[in-house]
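Justification of resources, computational component.

The compute hours requested in this renewal are based largely on the per-chain cost of generating structure records like the one below. Each record pairs the submitted sequence with a full structure-token output. That output is archived, and it is also reused by downstream analysis tasks.
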Amino acid sequence: MGYMGFGMQNWIFRQRPRRAFSKDSKPTGDTVPRFVTKEFNISGRAQKNPEQIEQNKRYYLGRIQKRSIKDKIVSALILAAIFLAISMLYKYQPWKRFEVSKEAVILAQQNAEQRKKAAFDMTLSYGNRKLVDSEIESAIKEFEHALKIFPNSLEAKVGLAKSYLMDCETNQNNCEKAVGCFD
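The structure output for this chain reads:
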């Protein structure tokens, strides 16, 4: 028996791994031959008499039955708990507790209108600022954005018409749109 380095013996290295979920290849029952003398009674694994073996068999079968009864009780309790939880959810319906009052809806609509008006005012001021700075393309984009927010706004339509007219005069672009705005 030689060593293969790191203290591993050769016979350990040559052993084959056991297949998963397979029974052990060791024999069962008496593994040590009986040797009976007056001083010694050496025997293998089956050293108990048949009465003890039968008694142990009844004991372990009883434990298995008790375990299966316990398993049935536990699974019945789990099912009862699930049924109770579902019935409580159905009865109390916690998702309906968060109903919104009419005042909250009105307040949310007012806040949305205020934000919409603030965005509209900001785009109009940006559009007018871009017109003053002669950034015509940016002004057109700002006024078009303002018209998306409030499509019937006269201020946004006038600003867009001014920017189209200015673009037509300086760059000869968007002349037909300028005429269309004044029609």
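Confidence is low (pLDDT under 50) at residues 27-44. Strands lie at 35-36, 41-42.
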